[in-house]
Amino acid sequence: MMTQTGRQSGRAARPDIRRLALAALLGAGVAMGQAPWDLWWVALPALGVLTALIAAERCGPRMVWLGWIGGAGYFAAGLFWIVEPFQIDAARDGWMAPFALVFMAFGMALFWALAGGVAALGRGPATRAIGFALGLAATDLLRGYIFTGFPWALVGHIWIGTPVMQAAAFTGPIGLSALATFAAALPMLGRRPATRAGLAALAVLAIGAVWAAGAVRLAAPEPQRDQPIRVRLIQPNAAQALKWRGDMWRIFLDRQMAQTAEPAAAPLDLVVWPETAVPFLLDDAGGLFARIAEASGGVPAAVGIQRVEGMRYFNSLAAADGMGEVHAVYDKWHLVPFGEYIPYGDMMAEFGISAFAAREGNGYSPGPGAQVMDLGRAGKVLPLICYEAVFPQDLRAAPERADWVLQVTNDAWFGNVAGPYQHYAQARLRAVEQGLPLLRAANTGVTAVIDAKGRVLDSLPLNTEGVLDAEVPAALAPTPYARTGDLPMAILLGLGLVALGAARRRQSD
């Protein structure tokens, strides 16, 4: 039985309910910087107040609690779309939706709790604030890699769509996170209100300097391609709940054929159908690609399709020439846990648990890795299937530099509010990081043409059907981030953590 002293000690290690509620509210405020709201000017002050709330604590466990609950508020508000896949077949899966949201929010919030633990290394408000900023940036990096990675809704994503995003060409997404977290912490380095106000102004000036540098980069002259590449992107708008139905799949297939056959203002070099665009396997496609070639007038095509080898199924992109002959296949290799495969899938299948997106069997198998497809007149293309565009390291894993990036995706799984727009925003960031244009063909949207600086040149709205004909923008020279990846930021953050720990030891001596 817990003693009275033990109960009091437990309460002392946990903030009161009002401070926890405030932390959750502030975390939700930070999430307002994510798409589709894009309110970075709300997110940054909210992060600053949360940092101050944690830095004002003197008890390490209370800092961890505040970080955890603040993170829960952040991820609940930013990733609430996680319930959407459970609504596709609500009768079967709907009961799991609230559990998924709670587990996702509080599970991901453990990274923010870890940042609270880093803050606890500080001896005063200033070093605790710096510790929390350092911890948040470091855990944003960590969650891009650990447990197959999930770098969605990074703090630095609040800068997507602003000139600040251009800094990602040099620092990657973690540099954007560090800019936000350290700008939020900077006012806490002062002891007096006037000093803190001055430091807050300094933080604004620092962001303004990065903003101005990004604007200069955006204004620089654009390179031109020697030979234009013209691509048609197909958006059939096939709702996920209807996509595989026996009375609907032929309607969607015929719709994509009709969209392929629409006259083009200029000769096309490639037609692109989105992820899992057809309801049967590549092995059973028969004359599908010949029909596509006939509809397009002999234009090569890239089609999202599933395929099988023995007992293994793959989520693939098949490229065919103008005669309808398939000459290259890319298999998605960075799969979505529980969406495309189930860890320990054979055992889980005994309980009726299978992956959402896999139409055949209980999940997909991963492909061999990143590759560049030679599509002839359309150039050398780095293909990404859906979720792979979330990972900067997946683009850097390609064996050679492509002319442009092609993402095929089915964002119908993500609902209509936040999920598709957050996925779309991250595609823009990948273009900036690599200095490569990115075209995305999405089943329900957003289909878009994005240049090498992350600007959207043209797009089709969510939940509409249509075609998008566009010239592929020119590529830039390889960016510093394309050459080095996350290593420089990892070293800087690691040195910061070492310095924070060393400072604590010196103060303890």
Automatic annotation (TrEMBL):
Keyword Coiled coil: no
Ranges in coiled-coil conformation: none
Residue ranges constituting the CN hydrolase domain according to the UniProt record: 234-474
Segments passing through the bilayer: 17-33, 39-56, 63-83, 95-121, 142-160, 166-186, 198-220
Membrane topology: Multi-pass membrane protein
Main location, first listed in the record: membrane
Enzyme class: transferase
Signal peptide annotation: none
InterPro entries tied to this protein: Apolipo_AcylTrfase (IPR004563), C-N_Hydrolase (IPR003010), C-N_Hydrolase_sf (IPR036526), LNT_N (IPR045378)
Keywords: Acyltransferase, Cell membrane, Membrane, Transferase, Transmembrane, Transmembrane helix
Iron-sulfur keyword on record: no
Pathway in which the depicted protein is active: Protein modification; lipoprotein biosynthesis (N-acyl transfer)
Purpose: Catalyzes the phospholipid dependent N-acylation of the N-terminal cysteine of apolipoprotein, the last step in lipoprotein maturation.
This protein's name: Apolipoprotein N-acyltransferase
Source species of the chain: Defluviimonas salinarum
Gene: lnt
